[in-house]
Specification:
The complex is a heterodimer. By secondary structure, chain A is α+β, with helices and mostly antiparallel strands. Chain A has four helices and twelve strands, in the order αααββββββαββββββ. Helix content of chain A is 23%, strand content 30%. In chain A, strands 1, 2, 3, 4, 5, 6, 7 and 8 form an eight-stranded mixed sheet that branches. The C terminus of chain B is likely disordered. The longest helix of chain B is centred in the N-terminal third of the chain and has 24 residues. The chains are: A alpha+beta, B mainly alpha.
């Protein structure tokens, strides 16, 4: 009789993983494809217009390489939440130069080792990949989230591999605005709750992996440390509340809202 | 009469968990595995008139999912494309046994890791894995043999010894 324990280990793995691996559903997949096809049709139409405009400009003798072509339909971009006022900037500066232990959050897209940040930038290896990290200058808060009487930090960490996407060249037919949007979409972001002091912060949870190009519409923290996140645009749009319960961060409420309200963004440090 | 949509939804329900579980083992990340698996099913729907006619559409989806998982750039792109639409909740923390296994799998080179996952979670034979990976069956046996040796070190030297269900693997 075989004594190989691997079948048993994988069976246990399957039993613990498969029941929760349900996915958003077949209808969701079909809806996504439908949206992508519509978007592709719009982009194709815009590209066709750009070609026509470019050809027309060239014929009119205006074919300077520095001339920027503006799409007929200007892309919308979300601006990050503005940073807090100047009289409370010292802790933000400390966070941009902090040491963050991202290891405890094992289910993260911007997870990592212990990362030393200098002026908001850091690097590390995560699961065999060399990642560059950033402390994003939006949705950055200080509050007592775990209710232990000491301040914690809610930080948006960005990550990418290889060349800085914001330095990558865009196709010449893209406007500056569209190019910026494309570059920002290449930077993954994730909200982390961190305990400790900037000399040594430890992540206790991560949530809402997204991208720099599509940040949450709004993030706020109430006086009792509960974090409210309104997802970026889309239909449905979600508002969910994330709080410290029974020794860990947990979703305490989740509401879907449709249609999506105009994103406002907010940053309100409580201390 | 079943419509294409209904057929696809049934296909999705029948196979999503199996594919997603394999990708979760391969990547060591359940959330990312779900995103990648969803992307693979979306691609299947895009070409459903063709994919549905294949002898094993689930194998096609699994192949696409593995390719997405292998490609680092695609992983990052898929992650933000899906997370901006859905799933704001973090996944529940994995249990220690789960962590031990994925950590051990992470020490394997990608081909060995894929072979082990396909063999033990995908229930593929050595020949099926060889066909999928476009390598000789002997290469797959070698991968599995080395992987078992490595996993024996990572999971405990006294835990892995004997042959597997097909008698393919030798004692280390």
């Amino acid at each position: 009789m075989s004594t190989d324990p691997l079948p048993g280990k994988f069976a246990t793995f399957r039993a613990s993983t498969a029941p929760a691996m349900t996915g958003p559903g077949g209808a969701h997949a079909r809806a996504t494809v439908r949206r992508q096809r519509r978007r592709a049709a719009v982009v194709g139409a815009v590209a066709a217009v750009l070609v026509l405009v470019g050809a027309g400009a060239a014929l009119a003798g205006l074919g300077h390489r520095s001339e920027r072509l503006t799409p007929v339909t200007a892309p919308t971009t979300q601006r990050p939440t503005p940073t807090p006022s100047q009289e409370d900037t010292s802790w933000q500066l400390a966070i941009r130069n902090a040491r963050m232990d991202l290891r405890p959050e094992t289910n993260a897209n911007c997870g990592g080792p212990v990362v030393d940040f200098r002026d908001g930038h850091g690097a590390g290896s995560y699961r065999g990949y060399d990642l560059n990290y950033r402390v994003m200058d939006f949705n950055l808060f200080r509050a007592d989230i775990d209710r232990d009487g000491r301040p914690d930090y809610l930080v948006t960490v960005g990550c990418y591999s290889g060349e800085d996407p914001e330095r990558a060249e865009c196709p010449t037919e893209l406007s500056d605005e569209a190019c910026e949007a494309q570059q920002k979409l290449a930077i993954t972001t994730q909200l982390f709750v961190l305990r400790g002091t900037p000399e040594r912060l430890t992540a206790i949870a991560g949530i809402h992996a997204g991208s720099y190009g599509l940040p949450p519409s709004a993030v706020t923290i109430s006086d009792d440390g509960v974090i409210t996140i309104v997802t970026h645009g889309g239909t449905p749009q979600y508002t969910y509340r994330w709080g410290y319960r029974n020794g860990r961060m947990a979703i305490v409420a989740r509401v879907s809202v449709s249609p999506s309200p105009r994103p406002t963004g907010s940053a309100s440090p409580t201390r | 009469m079943a419509t294409a949509e209904h057929e696809f939804d049934q296909f999705y329900s029948a196979h999503f968990a199996a594919v997603g579980t394999q990708i979760a083992a391969y990547l060591g990340d359940r959330a990312e595995a779900e995103d990648i698996t969803q992307e693979a099913f979306e691609r299947a729907w895009r070409g459903w008139s063709r994919v549905s006619g294949y002898g094993d559409p689930a194998a096609w989806v699994r192949t696409v999912a593995y390719r997405l998982a292998i490609s680092r750039w695609r992983r990052l792109r898929v992650a933000f494309a899906h997370r901006r639409r859905q799933r704001p909740e973090p996944a529940p923390p994995p249990d220690p046994e789960w962590l031990d296994l994925v950590a051990a799998l992470a020490t394997l080179p990608p081909p060995q890791r894929r072979a082990v996952v396909l063999f033990y979670l995908g229930d593929l034979t050595v020949e099926e894995i060889a066909d999928r990976e476009s390598v000789p069956a002997g290469t797959v046996k070698s991968w599995l043999h080395r992987a078992r040796g490595r996993l024996a070190v990572e999971l405990g030297p006294d835990e892995i010894s004997s042959t597997d269900r097909e008698g393919v693997l030798r004692e280390h």
